């Protein structure tokens, strides 16, 4: 039997503690892509989806992010099949988007609907308490206090441990915090999509976890003559890996959740945790990314 390193690749990303009691390795896994085309229906290869989840855990990933709307329901069901009873894992899910077809996402923040979806997620995931339950979108047709307030009731009933928000701005975060502690926010953010920078800065100041979705977009930066490709060659890495390394260096509250339906792609993503950018490399990429996003 060969000796194994005591540290898994994902551990190299460092840790973050959600809500003061859930410590996770910062590089997690987003489970949207283990569904069908258009995030609709079952995946083309369910066995591979199960393998991806199990391999992620082997690589040290202990933060899995999903949503009732992925499939819908398919992602949660596969997570339960692959990973239940989740020893040492934090499974985060969301509610607040209605699905009526492939690539169709309709905000629905009716408190009764949010409660229903939480109850159904509990059943699909096979748990009594959801570690992190996120409001997937703020629905402007219902008062924010009613939407977040329903999650507070579910937390008080022991069905939710911590509450997070998705796609909010600084003012919405502050308004929600008047109602209850918020442990995480999840917004689109990557090297070239930086609109959520004010929210990231606010989260960092307050010790709120920031979960960037769509973390790998880099566009022209990844072109053969672009700075990302050049730097990647120096690190013997891929542009995607450097994009993740940049996110991890950007802020200690950053929790990237790259997703994939392929074990090989998963292994490549998680290996990014072991790449350390110098301050100069970080600033070079930051400046190049800002140019693309402006």
UniProtKB/TrEMBL annotation:
This is Oxidoreductase. It comes from Mycobacterium kyorinense. The keyword Transmembrane does not apply. One of its GO terms (cellular component) is cytoplasm. The lineage of its organism: Bacteria, Bacillati, Actinomycetota, Actinomycetes, Mycobacteriales. Pfam families: Aldo_ket_red. Residues 26-287 form the NADP-dependent oxidoreductase domain. GO terms for molecular function: oxidoreductase activity. It comes from the Bacteria. Keywords: Oxidoreductase. The keyword Isomerase does not apply. Gene3D superfamilies: NADP-dependent oxidoreductase domain (3.20.20.100).
């Amino acid at each position: 039997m060969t000796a194994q390193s005591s540290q898994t690749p994902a551990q190299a990303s460092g840790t973050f503690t959600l809500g003061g009691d859930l410590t996770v390795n910062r590089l997690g896994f987003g489970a949207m892509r283990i569904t069908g085309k258009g995030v609709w229906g079952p995946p083309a290869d369910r066995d591979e989806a199960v393998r991806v989840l199990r391999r992620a855990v082997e690589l040290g990933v202990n933060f899995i992010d999903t949503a009732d709307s992925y499939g819908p329901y398919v992602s949660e069901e596969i997570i339960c099949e692959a990973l239940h009873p989740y020893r040492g894992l934090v499974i985060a899910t969301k509610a607040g988007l209605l699905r009526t077809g492939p690539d169709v996402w309709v905000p629905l923040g009716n408190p009764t609907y949010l409660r229903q979806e939480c109850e159904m997620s509990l059943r699909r995931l096979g748990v009594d308490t959801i570690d992190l339950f996120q409001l997937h979108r703020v629905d402007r047709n219902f008062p924010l206090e009613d939407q977040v307030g329903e999650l507070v009731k579910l937390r008080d009933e022991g069905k939710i441990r911590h509450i997070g928000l998705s796609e909010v701005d600084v003012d919405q975060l502050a308004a929600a915090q008047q109602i209850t502690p918020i442990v995480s926010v999840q917004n689109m953010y990557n090297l070239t999509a930086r609109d959520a920078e004010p929210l990231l800065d606010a989260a960092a100041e307050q010790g709120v976890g920031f979960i960037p979705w769509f973390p790998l977009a880099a566009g022209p930066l990844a072109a053969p003559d672009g700075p990302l490709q050049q730097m990647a060659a120096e690190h013997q890495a891929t542009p995607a890996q450097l994009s993740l390394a940049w996110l991890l260096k950007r802020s200690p509250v950053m929790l990237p959740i790259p997703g994939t339906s392929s074990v090989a792609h998963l292994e490549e993503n998680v290996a990014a945790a072991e790449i350390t950018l110098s301050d100069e490399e970080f600033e070079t990429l930051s400046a190049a990314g800002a140019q693309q996003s402006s």
